[in-house]
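Supplementary notes for students who missed Thursday's class. We covered one full example, reproduced here. Read the sequence, then the structure, then the short commentary at the end.
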Amino acid sequence: IDPYSPLPEKVNSVLATEVAAYRIFNKCFVQITDQSELLALAEGISHKGAFYPVSQHIQSSVDLLSRRENPDYRNSIKEAISAVEAMGKIITNQPNATLGDVLKTLESKHNLHGALKNGYLSLYGYTSDANGIRHALMEESNLTQADAKYFLLSCTSFVNYLKTFVTNSERGK
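Structure (token representation):
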């Protein structure tokens, strides 16, 4: 271990050596099983400028998921899908649109594949009616850490993917 590296890097090195299921990520202990997950999250929260709200949603999702004593899976999922919606609104310049509207625009103007659009419409639909994730709770939540981790990682990956639409359009592709 490099004695001059920051403490989180040192701790993560030990955790990796010990094959621990946790890593330190942005001052939080997060259950992560793969280095690529950490890299995707790091990219997702690194959005600056116009994409800053997206980074904030991802960071909030991480914070809510990683609360040791009282993790909030429901709101972690809500923040993760909100990151996708925020990124879509920014890319399409539709600040008042729903995620469904944004996905349709991405399909028509940025060649988002229809199956991918439909997949995210289904995930968005799930968050709109299952366990009151994005709306008032109707019953006791049965969401798990696995549910919240899935949404955090898949939504962060999709946000990172959507950012390439801006990059590619700036290059004229």
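Commentary. The beta strands are 22-25, 28-31. The first helix runs from residue 7 to 17. If anything here is unclear, bring it to office hours.
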